[in-house]
Design a protein that fits this description.
The complex is a heterotrimer. Helix content of chain A is 74%, strand content 2%. By secondary structure, chain A is mainly α. The radius of gyration of chain A is 19 Å and the shape is globular. A 6-stranded mixed beta sheet of chain B has the order 6-7-8-3-9-10, with helices on both faces. A 4-stranded antiparallel beta sheet of chain B has the order 2-1-4-5, covered by helices on one side. Chain B is α/β, with parallel strands linked by helices. Classes of the chains: A mainly alpha, B alpha/beta, C mainly alpha.
Chain lengths: 293, 253, 322
């Protein structure tokens, strides 16, 4: 293949990564934006979505699209439920105090991860894609499902944007993010908003995982990379900012894909992590700066 | 006190064109200010006049947008806050800022320790003496072993003053020190400040006019970030401009 | 914390007593447990280093594995590749940790709170990836095995090999004792007072004339030195240098040990490390998912028991416990 088409292929692959990354990072960004909470277990919600997708889709015989559709429905709901439970039982009791919350979400990470190990096992298992169409481009054939992933992610992000900016629920969320005390004074049930946002963040990660799992495989450790990458996206793109998240995800997703083709993935990760750490050190304003309102 | 009229003596604090803006808000705007050694100066003004911002600029808590600050003739504009404390500028917070989980003794010990460290080493005898002296002066000596957080509000304010005193500063800045104190506590406080003023220059922000009139030798009135008027208590009381801006409502803070 | 900051008789007796007990354990413990204790003692030094920064200074780092690894590789690489002797390599490991801590501190201390946690975590991640990238030197995940011959110290008439269980235990105990007493001395000194006060009210300390940045940086470097000494000792004593010790897990574990044992207590790290070690040891015999215990323990501790074992003891009964 000539270089041009090769680059196009790498770009398409990067777009798939970016699409899924944008969804995942959006979940993390929302939670931090509204609740000021860093959820270190976010990657495990992602993994849980993938593992549940495997569980649900294998329970359905017949055409894989039925199982997949069911997974797309069930997995996010269950993961949302798990998130809700953790929020009620643990995070609320801690008063969302930043350091304690991080420690608690680290604990949550281990629990979810190891439960997956116990019940799902240490193997990586594939999930069948709902359909197997191949789109024939002039230079190469490309998986129709991957294109579907890109489209689906875009649609989901538009839907989220719509909810955030055009519905009352979204308005309530943004009001709570802007000024918690005033929101309370206006009668907004901040506790319930927090619970909802935390669940929503987890669900976004889960949906992203369900979309990607026919391409990757479901494995109990698969939450690590999405967590790190989501962090990078949120820090660079700016928390709570939908536009920033999308742009940063595009940047990271595309470059990660392209760089990994030409350089060692380990080196790429090293440089990316170091770069983001430096961003936090030298441009902390507006990202994780003092937030008390 | 004669320093007020002798121009040859370098003022303790001088600001030239000192400004601090927050975005579009001009919290402090081109303030020229002189404070002579040995004065008791009060800064008064309506809420939002920039009083706390101004003294925060002087003690280094926040950095100026423009202008300069001189301490005994030396430019300290770029000097970080902790160095200014070592130079002799002590600040007590408007909202009480102590160490609630430490004992009263330990709170003051941190000031004494800082002073002793600057001079050499921290001998435990010198530490204990220093703490005892400071606590004695504010009247908290019998509460040394209590947790600072369990003190009454008035006593916490006194503890803050003790922490400032224990640094043996040249300039003690008190930010609304009598807020929340009872009348009796205010009386004690006025006597304490008079006593402190024998060794240190005192700059206080106050809303309580009775305290201001009794203590201050000179008053600076601020409004909207600028100095509106300066003078003796009588001059200020008589000034129509000040009354318009501040005292005219008839309330005394 | 109160009054005279010298180390009083009661405190000294307690600490000496603990050391004495541990010394006796060398001859009293069954072989298996003595081996566990040797590891625990070295890891407790790691925890003590972490405690200095987290418990006393109030800085929660999520990247301390990089200091442990600096010591581990700083000592292990010269031994393996350059044929250096044990004592020199040990010093090299500690020095590596100190230099790294200085560099990291200068960068990371420009942030606070959550940002500090994230930054330290990310720097540690870079460290971990570095050990995986330079496989020619480190052999990545597989790691380096230090042979008994590499781990011998030759004297004029005898050779000490660090594979002897009793010798290992005693060296581990020696390191532990030194760091324990250094920590005790530190927390009872004016500098120790300063760190605690910075934890309690940083802004106030600044306005009392303290150079807060300098104090925190010193704390980071000291912490790095202690943790690196543990890493160096671990590699030299137990003969294995691998990437796993640079991974995020080894940044979470000291946090867990310190929380469990009691943050801001001198003996808390030992208690916490010992306790969690045995709990995990026991559980790993039952299930492969024993790391879940780490998660459960963290949540239970932070929710109900944030002071940990010795912290609660100090609050309820023994107020003088350092």
């Amino acid at each position: 293949m000539a270089f041009g088409p090769y680059l196009l292929l790498a770009t398409l692959e990067g777009l798939v990564t970016a699409a899924v990354l944008a969804l995942t990072a959006l979940g993390l960004s929302l939670v931090f934006g509204v609740m000021r909470v860093v959820n270190v277990a976010h990657g495990e919600f992602f993994m849980l979505g993938a593992v549940l997708a495997w569980g649900v889709s294998t329970a359905f015989a017949g055409h894989p699209s039925i199982g997949f559709a069911a997974a797309l429905l069930v997995a996010p709901l269950v993961v949302g439920g798990v998130a809700l439970l953790s929020e009620r039982l643990v995070l609320r009791r801690l008063g969302y105090e930043p350091e304690a919350t991080i420690v608690a979400t680290i604990g949550l990470l281990y629990i979810v991860q190891q439960l997956a190990l116990s019940f799902y096992g240490a193997d990586a298992r594939p999930v069948q894609a709902p359909f197997n169409i191949r789109i024939q481009l002039p230079w190469f054939g490309y998986s129709g499902y991957k294109l579907f992933v890109i489209v689906a992610a875009i649609m989901l992000m538009i839907a989220t944007w719509f909810v955030l900016t055009r519905t009352k629920a979204g308005l309530v969320m943004r009001a709570t993010q802007y000024d918690r005390e005033t929101a309370q004074a206006f009668g907004i049930p901040v506790d319930r908003v927090y619970a909802g946002v935390f669940a929503l963040g987890a669900m976004l990660a889960a949906i992203a995982a369900v979309l990607i799992v026919p391409i990757q495989q479901a494995h109990y450790l698969m939450g690590r990379d999405p967590l790190l990458l989501s962090f990078i996206v949120v820090i660079i793109g700016g928390l709570g900012s939908l536009r920033g998240t999308v742009i940063a995800a595009l940047l990271i997703g595309l470059s990660d894909g392209i760089i990994s083709v030409f350089f060692s993935p380990t080196l790429a990760k090293m440089l990316a992590t170091a770069l983001v750490a430096m961003v936090l050190v030298f441009r902390p304003q507006g990202l994780f700066g003092t937030v008390a309102r | 006190m004669a320093a007020l009229t002798a121009p040859a003596i370098v003022p303790l604090i001088e600001t030239r064109g000192l400004s601090r803006h927050f975005g579009g808000l001009k919290a402090v705007e081109r303030v020229d200010f002189r404070l002579e050694r040995g004065e008791i100066r009060a800064i008064i003004g309506p809420n939002g006049a920039g009083k706390t911002t101004f003294v925060s600029l002087v003690c280094g808590r926040i950095a100026p947008s423009s202008g300069s600050i001189l301490f005994e003739g030396r430019d300290i504009t770029a000097m970080p806050a902790h160095r200014r404390v070592l130079e002799g500028i002590a600040y007590t917070f408007q909202i009480t800022s102590i160490f609630p989980r430490l004992t009263v003794f330990d709170n003051v010990a941190l000031s004494v320790q800082r002073r002793l460290l600057a001079a050499g080493r921290v001998a435990s005898q010198a530490l204990e003496t220093g703490v005892a002296e400071a606590l004695e002066r504010v009247g908290l000596a019998d509460r040394a072993t209590m947790l600072a957080g369990s003190l009454s509000y008035g006593h916490q304010r006194l503890l803050e003053v003790a922490m400032g005193l224990a640094l043996q500063p040249r300039l003690l800045i008190l930010d609304e020190p009598t807020q929340g104190l009872s009348d009796g506590e205010i009386e004690t406080f006025i006597a304490l400040v008079r006593e402190i003023a024998r060794e240190a220059t005192v700059l206080l922000i106050e809303h309580n006019m009775q305290v201001v009139m009794e203590l201050a030798q000179k008053i600076t009135v601020m409004s909207f970030g600028e100095v509106l008027a300066e003078g003796t208590p009588e001059e200020i009381r008589a000034s129509a401009a000040v009354q318009d801006a501040y005292l005219g409502t008839g309330s005394d803070g | 914390m109160s009054g005279g900051a010298r180390i009083d008789g009661r405190t000294l007796a307690l600490h000496l007593g603990v050391i004495a007990l541990l010394l006796a354990a060398n001859w009293l413990l069954p072989e298996y447990h003595r081996g566990v204790f040797a590891r625990v003692l070295v890891l407790a030094v790691f925890a003590m280093g972490y405690n200095l920064l987290f418990g006393y200074t109030g800085l929660l780092s999520l990247g301390h594995a990089m200091f442990f690894a600096a010591g581990l590789y700083g000592a292990g690489l010269p031994v393996y590749h350059l044929g250096w002797g044990v004592p020199l390599s040990f010093v090299a490991g500690i020095a590596a940790g100190g230099v790294l801590a200085l560099a990291i501190g200068l960068l990371a201390l420009r942030t606070t709170g959550v940002a500090f946690m994230i930054v330290t975590m990310m720097f540690a991640q870079v460290g971990y990836l570095t050990t995986l990238y330079f496989t020619t030197w480190t052999r990545g995940e597989e790691g380096l095995v230090l042979t008994p011959q590499m781990r011998s110290i030759a004297f004029t008439d005898t050779t000490l090999t660090l594979t002897d269980p009793s010798l290992r235990y005693l060296i581990a105990l020696a390191l532990f004792s030194v760091v324990l007493f250094l920590t005790l001395r530190l927390v009872r000194s004016p500098f120790g007072r300063t760190l605690v006060a910075i934890r309690e009210n940083e802004e106030r300390m600044r306005m009392l004339g303290y150079d807060v940045f300098r104090a925190k940086l010193t704390a980071v470097v000291l912490s790095g030195l202690f943790c690196a000494s543990a890493g160096a000792a671990y590699g030299l004593l137990f003969g294995y240098v691998g990437s796993g010790f640079a991974s995020i897990q080894y940044s979470i574990l000291p946090l867990l040990w310190v929380l469990a044992g009691g943050a801001a207590t001198t003996l808390g790290p030992l208690v916490g490390t010992l306790f969690m070690f045995y709990v995990i040891d026991y559980t790993s015999g039952i299930t492969t998912a024993y790391l879940m215990l780490v998660g459960v323990a963290l949540i239970l501790l932070i929710l109900f028991f944030p002071r940990g074992i010795l912290g609660t003891v100090r609050e309820r009964w023994l107020k003088w416990l350092p």
